[in-house]
Amino acid sequence: MKIEVTEAHLLAQIDLDRLPQHIAIIMDGNGRWANKRQLPRIAGHRAGIRAVRQAVEACARLGVACLTLYAFSVENWKRPRSEVKLLMALLREYLKKEVPELNRQNIRLGVIGRVSELPPPVQLDLKMAIKSTEANTGLRLTLALNYSGRAELIDAVRAIARGAKRNGFAEINEQTISDRLYTRGMPDPDLLIRTSGEMRLSNFLLWQIAYSELWVTNTLWPDFKQSDLFQAIIDYQKRERRYGGLT
Ligand code: IPE
Ligand code: IPE
Ligand code: MG
Question: Looking at residue 2, what is its pLDDT?
Answer without folding.
Answer: 56
